[in-house]
UniProtKB/TrEMBL annotation:
This is dTDP-4-dehydrorhamnose reductase. Catalyzes the reduction of dTDP-6-deoxy-L-lyxo-4-hexulose to yield dTDP-L-rhamnose. Belongs to the dTDP-4-dehydrorhamnose reductase family. Keywords: NADP, Oxidoreductase. GO terms for biological process: dTDP-rhamnose biosynthetic process; S-adenosylmethionine biosynthetic process. Residues 1-309 form the RmlD-like substrate binding domain. GO terms for molecular function: dTDP-4-dehydrorhamnose reductase activity; methionine adenosyltransferase regulator activity.
Length: 326
């Protein structure tokens, strides 16, 4: 199978690279922009501006993939407000260009989306729950979802949430803590293992409840979506919602860390975006699990698998496709 993967040097994309090449023997082509691939990357690549429809059409025509998996984003929350034309082109325009190219070559297309398409007041949002975003990132992702659902001949939207895992394209944890759940477990483990205190942010103005996803599990689910040419909206996440405090406590227990170094309190507001943040973005993935034939892992299992990946520098042998994980 040949897959055209955007965002291969990003967090989620680097996990898709490892899962698709190591577990499934997929042939990858990955368009890149500013960030070059790491040395020895197991894929062909070329510089492609995803916001340029002609460039995308020509690139996909050369590769002739069986599937396109679109993980790339402009990862600059402040920039989405400062340069709205660029933000629209980077999200909605790029998605449209990839969908049109996929249509031209009968390729399946998967857009990786987010739980932040919801406003944070709907606990356990289902696949059919209408999006109602409260910030620019959620709005741009929701608009991109419409491009896929309305324009793609064979396409899927794969929402992921609270992603924790290893960024295989970078040697260090890229960030410590933000308004979401991403990297939270690895950040806690890094700090407490070094003997540093870590304050887990708690505030009603933060994303405080989510459904954590192990990045490599999300990649495995994305593989199933593409390989099975599934269509519609899917929730490719874990199987249990949890709050920030609960996830932090699980991290301390699972990694055998010093609980006395863990604090809870108000966030550093100057480090956060001046925009609304959805409070409860928990997802119900029951229908997705049934469609993909998987048993989604609970939060404890996700943290255990993450410890394996961080300490052994290899993919966890258990995945979201393994039955009986709940």
């Amino acid at each position: 199978m040949r897959v055209y993967l955007t965002g291969a040097t990003g967090f989620v994309g680097s996990n898709v690279v490892r899962v698709l090449t190591e577990r499934h023997g997929v042939e990858l082509f990955c368009p890149v922009n500013r960030t070059p691939p790491p040395a020895g990357a197991p894929y062909d690549h070329a510089v492609v501006d995803l916001a340029d429809p002609a460039a995308v059409a020509a690139s996909v025509a050369r590769v002739r993939p069986d599937a396109i998996v679109h993980t790339a984003i402009w990862n600059d929350f402040h920039g989405l407000y400062a340069d709205r034309p660029r933000a629209w082109a980077a999200y909605v325009g790029a998605t449209r260009n990839l969908v049109d190219a996929a249509n031209a070559h009968d390729a399946h297309v998967t857009l990786v989306s987010t739980d932040w398409v919801f406003d944070g007041t709907q606990s356990g949002a289902r696949e059919q729950t209408p999006p109602n975003p409260v910030n620019a990132y959620g709005f741009l992702k929701a608009a991109s979802e419409l491009v896929v659902t309305e324009r793609a001949r064979c396409g899927a939207v794969a929402r992921i949430s609270g992603v924790n895992g290893v960024h295989w394209a970078r040697p260090q944890t890229p960030r410590m803590q933000d308004a979401g759940f991403g990297y939270l477990v690895a950040s806690i483990a890094d700090a407490l293992r070094a003997g540093r205190r870590f304050r887990v942010w708690e505030d009603e103005r933060l994303n405080s409840i989510a459904t954590p996803t192990l990045a490599s599990d999300a990649a495995e689910l994305l593989w199933r979506v593409a390989d099975g040419r599934h269509e519609g909206i899917l929730h490719c996440c874990g199987g249990e919602a949890i709050d920030r405090r609960g996830l932090a406590e699980l991290a301390v227990e699972t990694f055998a860390l010093d609980r006395e170094l863990l604090d809870f309190g108000a966030p550093d507001w100057d480090a956060l975006p001046d925009a609304p943040i959805p409070y409860d973005t928990s997802l119900d993935a029951t229908e997705t699990a049934a469609a993909l034939g998987v048993a989604l892992p609970d939060a404890r299992t996700i943290v255990q698998r993450l410890r394996h990946e961080l300490e052994r520098h290899e993919l966890s042998p258990q995945t979201a496709t393994a039955g009986g994980t709940r």
